[in-house]
TrEMBL record:
Residues that bind ATP: 27-31, 91, 125, 176-180, 207-212
Catalytic activity: L-arginyl-[protein] + ATP = N(omega)-phospho-L-arginyl-[protein] + ADP + H(+)
Nucleotide-binding is among the record's keywords: yes
CDD domains to which the protein is assigned, alphabetical: bacterial_phosphagen_kinase
Keyword Transmembrane helix tagged: no
Family the UniProt entry places it in: Belongs to the ATP:guanido phosphotransferase family.
GO cellular component, one term: extracellular space
Protein name per its UniProtKB record: Protein-arginine kinase
Organism: Heyndrickxia sporothermodurans
Stated regulation of activity: Appears to be allosterically activated by the binding of pArg-containing polypeptides to the pArg-binding pocket localized in the C-terminal domain of McsB.
One term of GO molecular function: protein arginine kinase activity
UniProt entry keywords in alphabetical sequence: Allosteric enzyme, ATP-binding, Kinase, Nucleotide-binding, Transferase
Gene: mcsB
Entry function: Catalyzes the specific phosphorylation of arginine residues in a large number of proteins. Is part of the bacterial stress response system. Protein arginine phosphorylation has a physiologically important role and is involved in the regulation of many critical cellular processes, such as protein homeostasis, motility, competence, and stringent and stress responses, by regulating gene expression and protein activity.
Motif RDXXRA motif of the pArg binding pocket involved in allosteric regulation, chain ranges: 337-342
Length: 357
């Protein structure tokens, strides 16, 4: 493996797989926050402690008891700004690790379904990603990695509170479970303003595509738990799955309602967006995201044939600023990015036509 593979390939291997309810749920993620008992938390630790933590985690993952042998460690100090930005756009590291942690690192599997961030807000953050609605599978994999690491690491743990973390909102299980959902039906039928407050009342939070503080581009939302204390990991996952299954049902009902009441208008919207993507010479990121959402909806509803549904996952990453500039080989001004974004989308759609024609 090499750094080039992680930053030059837009789609992670796990993204090409089909998952349950993948017409609406793009991905499931479980993240576990853990800290060493003997070191200060990242808010207070020294540079020497930070380096020792990276070394200890790397040693654990190289031990014979650890089954994953296809992992590679990338140190943030060795990466260029654009390379880190691409890893954020692929959801492999957090913006916080990219921007603020000069002594951070990440360990990635070749499939990019496992990401272990080191010295972010906590010493260790184990992240597992699965396609579709597979929260229980993601939890099982993350827990196995966590158990193996705990055989070698003395975690900061309280019998009363559970796992101790830098942020009090993560104390307890230290777990954040989330799903990425595509909800154009609920947006078009103007139901999201009702759905979001209802979700919040259940102890969950709705965020944009890159988590806290980010925008819901292309009708893509991230739904995750807020409560980590007083519940078990499986309780949190089951509660989230129950809510997501209701949202899936509501999204499908909204799409059916659109077909019944506005079929020709919806079909027109889909094909207009397809035309914009296939022919534009300049396109901004927000417009591209919206048109890609319409295209994916058209594929899911059978309006558009011979185009892969994975195109939304792929082009949502390919058209992000960091990846565009990495692809170009250097920094681009906003206008230049808009031109290159349009070119890349046209070329990708032409390739799709050739492959499926």
């Amino acid at each position: 493996m090499s750094l080039e593979k992680f930053v030059n390939q837009a789609v992670s291997s796990w993204m090409n797989q089909e998952g349950p309810n993948s017409d609406i749920v793009l991905s499931s993620r479980v993240r576990l926050a853990r800290n060493f008992k003997q070191f200060n938390f990242p808010t207070l630790f020294s540079n020497e402690e930070a380096r020792e933590i990276i070394s200890k985690v790397e040693t654990v993952l190289q031990s014979k008891s650890f089954p994953e042998n296809n992992m590679e460690l990338l140190r943030m100090e060795d990466l260029q700004t654009l390379q880190k930005k691409v890893l954020v756009e692929k959801h492999l590291i957090s913006p916080n690790l990219a921007d603020e942690s000069s002594h951070g690192a990440v360990i990635l599997t070749s499939e990019e379904d496992v990401s272990i961030m080191i010295n972010e807000e906590d010493h260790i953050r184990i992240q597992c990603l699965f396609p579709g609605l597979q929260l229980k599978e993601a939890l099982e994999k993350a827990s196995k990695i966590d158990d193996l690491m705990e055989e070698h690491i003395d975690y900061a743990f309280s019998e009363k509170l559970g796992y101790l973390t830098s942020c009090p909102t993560n104390v307890g299980t230290g777990m954040r479970a989330s799903v990425m959902v595509h909800l154009p039906g609920l947006v078009l039928t103007q139901q999201m303003n009702r759905v979001i407050p209802a979700i919040s009342q259940l102890g969950l939070v709705v965020r944009g595509i890159y988590g806290e503080g980010s925008e819901a581009l292309g009708n893509i939302f991230q739904i995750s738990n807020q409560i980590t204390l007083g519940k078990t990991e499986i309780d949190i996952v089951e509660d989230l799955m129950s809510v997501v299954q209701q949202i899936i049902a509501q999204e499908r009902s909204a799409r059916e309602a659109l077909i019944k009441t506005s079929n020709i208008q919806l079909e027109d919207k889909v094909f207009r967006s397809f035309g914009v993507l296939a022919n534009s010479r300049i396109i901004e990121s927000k417009e591209a995201a919206q048109c890609l959402s319409d295209l994916r909806l058209g594929i899911d509803m059978g309006y558009i044939k011979n185009v892969s549904k994975n195109i939304l996952n792929e082009l949502m990453i390919l058209t992000q600023p960091g990846f565009l500039q990495q692809y170009a080989g250097g920094p681009l001004r906003p206008h230049e990015r808009d031109i290159r974004r349009a070119t890349l989308i046209r070329e990708r759609l032409k390739l799709e036509e050739v492959n499926n024609g």
